[in-house]
Amino acid sequence: MLLYEDQMEEEMTFDPKFTITPKINKALVEIERVRGFLDAVKLKGDWIADMQQKALILESHHSTHIEGTALSLEQARSILEGKKLKGINRDDEKELLNYRKSMNFISKYLGKEDPVTEGVIRELHKITVKGVRGEKADPGNYRKVQNYVANSRTKEVIYTPPPPLEVPHLMREFTGWLDETEDISPILVAGIAQFQFVHIHPFIDGNGRTARLLSTLVLYKTGYDFKRLFTISEYYDQDRPGYYQAIQSVRQKGMDMTSWLEYFVEGLRSQMEEIQKKGEQLIKQDASLQKIKKVGLNTRQEKAVKCLLVNGKITVNEYQKVVSCIRRTAQRDLEDLAAKKVIQMIAQSPTDPTKHYILR
Question: What is the mean pLDDT of residues 310-334?
Fold first, then answer.
């Protein structure tokens, strides 16, 4: 195993401890391999945009869900598509919409060499919590009171962050370190940034969301945006006890970040694996679409065929929603596709009388 010893300037006291284990090294190699695949692969812009939209919905939902919002993924998707839902918590809705705004904010830093300053972090926090729950989180301002991290189920205090008077100094050291990390993999910098931010817990509330956004920002600005297709919070949300334990392990091991970084890079590696599978699937779907288009499709039909390639089947009602047309037009388009032997109707069953169409 290789022990990494960072060479910091004398006045810099934040000096993260970690060991580059074989597990970390293997994950980094796999992540770089998929990054190379994404750089080389030729995916059509509209396919990429659709994947990016789905990734944004997943990331916004799962990151806010970790912090306690009660929205289902389907509700989150509807809200982010601009639909008004009844019977939901409006603060949950606002947190979700704010998170999307924050993701759009950090997207402006794609590939830019601008340093991640305290001002950028404050603005990121401000966007994330503005107008939510009476603005008790004091958007964009460091906390002036002591806060605590408690077990959401037992309410037991599991971590007491540094006193408020230390926060400005710690954040100054932290952002100074972020600006001096040329010799460390940007992936590890992103993981270290996420932990250290949570450890300082500089704001009254919204620290978890801001930490995950900050980690993504570090990846984006260093060219590791992976075409904005990854949803790291989905990995955390699927196993929250494991996520919290990975963070807590740093404090349990004398502030050694190795275990946390193993967890972090494994989460990103698993996301890269999913992205490559989706990318390969899209290449096949696009090839199929180009072949089908030779029979002659109107714009609505082409959009519906893309939906069919992704979902496997479509109904008249779904066709209407996908292409925004009246029922008569949807029926005429589907009949035309059937006549051209592009699709066929599935035999109706007693339990599901709805007409479904699939590709031939």
Answer: 89
CATH 1.10.10.10 domain span(s) along the chain: 296-359
pTM of the model: 0.85
- For residues 209, 214, 216, 218, the Cα torsion angle rounded to the nearest 10 degrees is -170
Question: Rounded distance, CA 54 to CA 254, Å?
Answer: 39
Strand, helix or coil at 359? strand
* CATH topology classification for 296-359: Arc Repressor Mutant, subunit A (1.10.10)
**The residue type at 227:** K
Q: Which whole number is the average pLDDT over 289-317?
A: 88
Report how far residue 105's alpha carbon sits from residue 168's, in angstroms, rounded to the nearest whole number: 23
Query: Contact 148/159 with Cβ under 8 angstroms?
Result: yes
Tokens found for residue 50: 């659709």
Q: What is the DSSP string of 146-205?
A: ---EE-TTT--EEE-PPPGGGHHHHHHHHHHHHTT-TTS-HHHHHHHHHHHHHHH--SSS
Distance separating alpha carbons of residues 188 and 77, to the nearest angstrom = 31
Q: Which residues, in sequence order, are bridge partners of residue 150?
A: 157
Task: Give yes or no for residue 283 having a pLDDT over 90.
Answer: no
Task: Give, in words, the CATH class of 17-281.
Answer: mainly alpha
Closest CA to 99 of 145, 64, 54: 64
Asked if residues 232 and 190 have their Cβ atoms less than 8 Å apart, the reply is: no
Residue span(s) of the chain under CATH 1.10.3290.10 come to: 17-281
Which range of 26-30, 41-45, 176-180, 310-314 scores highest in mean pLDDT? It is: 26-30
CA end-to-end distance (rounded Å), the chain: 54
Residues 196 and 214: beta-carbon distance below 8 Å:
no
Alpha-carbon distance 343 to 356, whole Å?
10
**Burial tier of 5 (Cβ tally within 10 Å: 0-12, 13-18, 19+):** exposed
